What we know:
about 80% helix, globular, about 0% strand, single chain
Amino acid sequence: MRKLVLLALVGLGAQLVDGSLGMAYGVTSTTLLLAIGTNPAAASATVHLAEIGITLVSGASHWKFGNVDWPVVLKIGVPGAVGAFAGATFLSNLSTETAEPIMSLVLLALGVYVLTRFTLWGLRTSNLGKPLRKRFLSPLGLVAGFVDATGGGGWGPVGTPAILSSGRLEPRKVIGSVDTAEFLVSIAASIGFLAALGSKGIDFGWVAALLIGGAVAAPVAAWLVRHIPPRILGSLVGGIIIVTNSRTLLKSDWIDAADGTRYAVYAVLYAVWAAAVAYSVRAWRRSEAVAPSPSPSEQETVSA
């Protein structure tokens, strides 16, 4: 029971982050499942099964608040589902010894991306109102879906910053549309895992715990972001993902680092992480000091 409560809290925390940033539910949850010894394919399957319900609640919440651009959802979501099914099939056919370091490497890369992206640049937009074309969104969805299934997460870290960087859609609609499209990705990935693995290694109690925690968090994510700036939250989450997956890689058969080497690497990573968070806090305070006070409607747009 204690483990189920902890998993529910993991699901809640991960979805609060995901609903605020448009990313990191999968990478956060899968990283923690791997840390407690879950089979990589089963970890990804567990997270994606939970995400079916979570993304449904999250998408409905974003739709209610007007945060969804439906053409974008379809243009990125359908190719994303194809990529997710292919990724699930690929991961399911790898041995655990091979899959675990590969998944940790993918998650580590995503963690570095999230930490760097939000620490150095935060969220920026330009060129609002220009259309997002299918030739941009379809390949993006295909790649993001494949990475999401093989890494146990990655839909948001790949899709959200790419669309934000285009500057053509306001942040609240980027996050809302990516979260809503993830419903299709989660279904496709889950079908792929179940077809390849059956229910082997999947603890449906864990699925339910993650689902309950995430479903509770989905409607309040917009409230959270009003109190924790996305820039700081991204730095915090990115650091957690980097440290945890570095530990897995250093202990893997690929590296098998000595204790002294591992501790030295951990010390460096913690120092870099602390510096990144401190930098994000200072940068956010500077931006708050020079920025004009937004109107209530502008506050809602930025927060969502």
